[in-house]
Amino acid sequence: MKANAITTCYVGPEISPEQFIPEHFFLYLAKGKIEGYDGHRKYVMKAGDYVLACKNQLARYNKHTDKGAFEKVVVVFDQAFLKGYMERYKIVPPAPSPKAPFIPLQKNELVPHFIQSLTPYYNNENNRIGDPFLNVKREELLMILLQHNSELAGILFDFREPEKLDLEAYMNRNYKFNVHLERFAYLTGRSLSVFKRDFAAIFSDTPNRWLTQRRLQEAYFLLDKKGAKPSEIYLDLGFENLSHFSFAFKKKYGIAPTELSDRKKQALPLKKA
């Protein structure tokens, strides 16, 4: 891999940058630092750490380079691959295990050796391990992980669709994630039409309008009470860009977020020496 660059080696299909995990994947961080958030808690990964990211979960992460370098290896265990693995090795479906967006994995000396073994097959042009070694290397890693983390079988080989959830609790916990309404509907076990109907019955509003207002309320609190800067919070609150956030905020509160932030700073008492 190139030094002093942001590099990802993919083994399997590339994962969407959307704040949603559509397929299970293994993530090994070679250089840099990652700060993740799943709606409940924050995670920090440093070089040498690795996790399993579980499908059908909302999550996001921020990358931090180490002297300009950031390198990670992503091995995707998509459903088609996992079903084929089960059939090939005649695995009896295990009982489902509880899922979390990020599962830190028990350290295993075979994992760093596996990462090093990818180098001869790595294509710098497309950041991928290509055929015919793609599934061979994915199977190798899966065997290593299951051997040392047997409980992962109940996660990886659980092919059920999301069940119907408490919509009010789910949305109040996950409103900061910038995903399409279809994702929220799917993850709460509903069709889009049923999701919108249930949403209106609970919140007396449309999902898009409620999400915008809820995010703006949280933004006002962070700017007014916590002294946050608009540029620090708009992405974490689910806004796609700063200009959209600023426009929506001023429309609702009659003041630009930067003005509120500056006013708050000016009102702060000076610290005593």
From TrEMBL:
PROSITE patterns per UniProt: HTH_ARAC_FAMILY_2
Claim: DNA-binding is one of the keywords in the record: yes
Membrane-spanning ranges: none
GO molecular function terms attached to this record: DNA-binding transcription factor activity; sequence-specific DNA binding
InterPro entries: AraC_XylS_family_regulators (IPR050204), ExsA-like_N (IPR054015), Homeodomain-like_sf (IPR009057), HTH-like (IPR037923), HTH_AraC (IPR018060)
The keyword Transcription is annotated on this UniProt entry: yes
Positions of the HTH araC/xylS-type domain: 165-263
Keywords: DNA-binding, Transcription, Transcription regulation
Descriptive protein name: Helix-turn-helix transcriptional regulator
Source organism of the structure: Chitinophaga agrisoli
